[in-house]
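Fold this sequence, please.
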Amino acid sequence: MKNSEPTDPTIMPMLISRSLKLFRNAVQRLPLIGAGLLLAGCDTVVLHPSGDVAAQQGHLLVVSTFLMLIIIVPVIALTCFFAWRYRHKNTEATYEPEWDHSTKLELIIWGAPLLIIIVLGLLTWIGTHTLDPYRPLERLDAKRAMPLNVKPMVVEVVALDWKWLFIYPDLGIASVNELAAPVDVPVEFKITASTVMNSFSIPALAGQIYAMPGMQTTLNAVINRPGDFDGFSANYSGAGFSDMKFKFHGMSKADFDQWVQSVKTGSELSRGIYAELEKPSQREPVRHYGSIDADLYHAILNRCVSGNEQCLDQMMQMGPQGSMSAAAKAEINATSGATKLASIGNGISKEISKEICTTPQLSSGKNNVRTN
């Protein structure tokens, strides 16, 4: 039996050519497919937040990106065009080796980016002042102004190792790793830390802001839609950093009142309980405290929870007019501060405060001090 020969010798090369073409097309689409798969897992909460402050920040981000793309896209397109237009094999392209200047091109090349930078600078300046976290809110959202005589709800935030403590001083309650606020009610966060610097962040509500021991930062924000949102630490702070997360609940007024009542059934948060809570721990469950020490946050902020230390705000207020306590004078006498005090007399209080703040007792890990 004779082997049959193919009737057309061009069939096999044609099939191979088509297969290679399909393979090349598939390879070219792989980056797009990969990018689509990666983007499918993205959380776009920054661009679709539920708080007005975060919405303004997202809008500023989008506008800034489009302004920059006005320069970036033409530059990339022209780079590809020139590379193709003036390739070695294109003999039809104009070749002018002596050309070196064009006033029109210079105006476009330098003028367009300069205008973009001016606009970006203006937007940044306006946004920096409008979205200042210390600035009280002037509106609830883009369509509603802040009602007159509205008092913001105060929440005192303490970054611990590795958990979050939220104190509601006006309500007399506190919680660990759980935060709640009523919808369309301005919230003033007063933020500090117990040991190392941290960062308080709720992307759906507002931008992140740092928490530092012995200092207080402030964040004003408002949530406009009910829901459960993620909060976390945005600054590495040690072994338990990755689990330093909490839930922020945006609630209706009725649901928030119910939540407050449930928290009030918890135990008391005394200074002794706080001392145990302050110890480093990971993956702490949600805890509720139905009553709190009224001066606890002040003591945390000023590094005098145990009661055996002098509070930093008191120490910073000491002056040369005899207002120093006996404990403060003993600290000064134990260091070179006594010599400084004797030499400067009673007229310069700044030098006294400077010397007090650099005593060995405060310089070891407690040198970030700010009076609040």
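The chain has a mean pLDDT of 82. The first helix runs from residue 11 to 40.
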